Amino acid sequence: MRVAVPGGTGLIGRALVAALRSRGDQVVVLSRNPTRAPEWLSGVEVFGWRPEAEHPPTEAIDGVDAVVNLAGAPIFPGRWTESRIRAIRDSRVLGNRNLVAAIGDTESPPSLIVAGSAIGYYGSRGEEELKEEAGPGSDFLASVCRDLETEVEAASRMGVRVVRLRTGIVMAPSGGALGQLIPVFRAGLGGRLGAGRQWFSWVHISDLVGIILRVLDDDSIVGPVNATAPNAIRNVAFSKALGQTLRRPSIMWVPAGVLRLAFGEMASILLSSQRVLPSRLAEAAHEFTFGEIGPALKDCVTRSLDSSTSTP
Q1: Is the pLDDT of residue 10 over 80?
Q2: pLDDT beyond 80 at 312
Q3: What pLDDT sits at residue 184?
Q4: CB atoms within 10 A of CB 39
Q5: In Å, how far are 14, 118, 244 from 248, measured between CA atoms?
Q6: pLDDT on residue 263
Q7: Is 69 helix (H, G, I), strand (E, B) or coil?
Q8: pLDDT value at residue 83
Q9: How far apart are the first and last CA of the chain?
Q10: Is the separation of the CB atoms in 87 and 134 below 8 Å?
C-alpha cells in the first residue's frame, strides 16, 4: 500500500510512519518543513505543504491508496494566543478543504482519507456517554472539529471512503499532554485539575497507530470513529495513577480559575468532561493493547526513561 501522511513529522505521524514502513508500505510525507523532515524520518518521500495556504502537490497524492491527514498546528503546549487560535483552526479546516480540492484534480485519487479530528468535537458533556452518533459541542475546539469533518466529508461525493478519527488525549513516552504532565508530577506538584470528577478519555499511542492501520485495512469502517481506549477515567483517578507510576504524591489541587488564568482557552481541554466510548471499534471487534490507564502509563514512563538514559 502507498500511503500519504500530511503531518508525518508530528508525534502521531512519526509513530505511524514507522509502523507503515515496518510492514512494507510505501510512505509519502507532506510537511511544512520538508528540508528538516529527513532528520526525523528516513526511507520516505517528502513534499512541502502549507495546509492553510495551498493545495498539496499533485504528485504527492496522485496514485496513493490512502491519505492519513494528521496535519495541524499543535494544541500543546503553551497559551492560546489569538494568532495560535487562528493557526489551530486554519491548519485543520482550510487544510482539509485544500486536500479535498487537490484530490478532485488528480487522475488517480486515493480510495480512502483518514482525517485526524478529536474528541473535542463533543465539547464538555458531563456524565453523558458519547458514542459516534452524539452531536457536536459549541466551544472553540468543537467548532474546529465539526468544520474540518464537514470539509473532508466532501470527498465522499467523489467516491472516496472517508473516516473521521476522533482521537482522545494521546499517551506517549514524550510529547503531547503526558509530556507536559510528567515533569510536574515528578516534582511532586501533581494532582487533580479543577473538581477532578471530569471524565478523561485517552488512548495509548501504540493503540492509536493500531487503529489507523485497522482503518486502512478494513473497508467496512467508514464515517466517525472514536479513537479512545475503552475505559475512560476521571481526572482525579488519572492523577492518582500517574503519581503512583512515578512514585510521587499527587495531592495537589489546581482550581479551575487558576487554570483559566494560566492557560486561557486551552484550559478547556483540561477541564472538559468527555466520557467517550469507541463503539465503532467495539462493533468491529478491535482489540486494544492498553485498555487500562495503569499499564499504559507504566509503558510510557518506562519507555521515556529508557530513551533518556540511552541518549548520549
Answers
A1: yes
A2: no
A3: 87
A4: 9
A5: 30, 30, 6
A6: 76
A7: strand
A8: 94
A9: 36
A10: no
- By DSSP bridging, strand 233-234 and strand 199-200 are antiparallel
Pull the grid cell for residue 155. Answer: 470527498
Above 70 in pLDDT, residue 311?
no
C-alpha cell at 44: 520516505
Please check whether the domain covering 2-234+263-307 is classified as CATH 3.40.50.720: yes
Query: By the 8 A CB rule, do 198 and 235 touch?
Result: yes
Distance of CA 125 to the CA centre of its chain: 20
Per-position b or e across 191-224, b if 16+ CB within 10 A of its CB: bbbbebebbbbbbbbbbbbbbbbebbeeeebeeb
The answer to whether 177 and 201 are in contact (CB under 8 A) is no
Q: What are phi and psi of 22, to 5 degrees?
A: -70, -25
CB 17 within 8 A of CB 2: no
Q: In the structure grid, which three cell numbers stand for residue 81, read together?
A: 494566543
Question: Distance between CA atoms of 95 and 286, rounded to whole angstroms?
Answer: 30
State residue 309's pLDDT score: 47
- Identify the pLDDT of residue 308: 54
Q: Which three cell numbers stand for residue 266?
A: 486551552
pLDDT of residue 260: 83
Closest by CA position to 172, among listed 200, 208, 202, 205: 205
Beta-bridge partners for 202: 169
Q: What are the Cα distances from residue 79, in Å, to 82, 134, 261? A: 10, 29, 10
